[in-house]
Amino acid sequence: MKKRTLGKSDVQITPILMGTWQAGRRQWVGIDDNDSIKTIRAAFEAGITTVDTAEVYGDGHSERIVAKALSDVRDRVELATKVFANHLKYEQVIEACDRSLKNLNTDYIDLYQIHWPSGSFNSEIVPIESTMKALNELKQQGKIRAIGVSNFSRAQLELAAQYGRIDSLQPPYSLFWRYVEQDAVPYCIENNISILAYSPLAQGLLTGKFAAGHEFDPNDNRSKNRLFQGKNMEHAQEALAKLRPIAANHHCTLAQLALAWLIAQPQTNAIAGARYREQAVANAQATSIQLSADELQEIDRIGRIVTDSLDNNPVMWSF
Fold it and tell me: Could you give the number of structural domains in the chain?
């Protein structure tokens, strides 16, 4: 799988990244650690060498699972993790990074990201310059190779960039969730900031496996995902029906089509989660799908059946 440069850094990443929120087990149902380890390893063997995790995913559990899966091939993978909104004071960032280094069984992190802006989830407001000071020092010390932010608006991204080089933005972004295109994408293109799209399959909705009326376990975070509810779900089913013939023409799944469309967008890469080995391998195969300009435009148009009817709330979940 041909790699891409992360922002202006010297880090090379794969256009499909392995997402590991589910490996943390919290807010997910039916996750088995052995399955998670096998799935992460299968992704690596299929060519996905960049793995995204976070300290908050199961309070470090996901990071430890990633280490179990990949420690023996550390020199051939790129590890990305995140510091949560409640750890953004200078000394807290330093301590959080050290915990993540230990959890990941490594002496450096390729991409270290602010998971949510200060103040999110009722966290204490911390000046961004304090957080960035810690991140810059960690970078100078060689503990991290690049700095990124997640869930930041354009305005928040611009402010953070005043205090150090930001090489990536991680927003929710998929064919069915495209708020970032109107906000931060132009800034990212102008400033060579890589976009690492999370929920690129709209938490599974773009796989076509969930019919209207599907009910998730209340402990599954998707039970709060607004795309699976009411008119949004009806519009999604209409769009999926129109996408199926295009997928059939490429002998690929709906999920692979959605990933191929996303990584064809400017500077955009996709963080795709998977529970099982077969899913990880299928995600990797999406990089081989070549969509024509006409097909990209048609897929774009179909996606707007969903996105044009959404409200102005940029948060996907009604937590």
Answer: 1
CB 18 within 8 A of CB 60: no
Domain residue limits at 262? 4-204+256-289
The per-residue pLDDT for range 191-226, each reduced to its tens digit, is 999 999 999 999 999 999 998 888 898 888 899 999
Residue 234 within a domain: no
60, part of any domain: yes
Q: By the 8 A CB rule, do 60 and 31 touch? A: no
Q: What is the CATH number of the domain that holds 192?
A: 3.20.20.100
pLDDT of amino acid 318 = 86
Residue 224, domain member (yes or no):
no
d(CA 74, CA 95): 22
Q: Which of 57, 112, 173, 179 is catalytic?
A: 57
> What 8-state DSSP symbol labels residue 198?
B
- Residue 240 belongs to some domain of the structure: no
Q: Is 187 annotated in the active site?
A: no
Give this prediction's pTM.
0.96
Residues contacting 310, CB < 8 A, separation 6+:
177, 226, 232
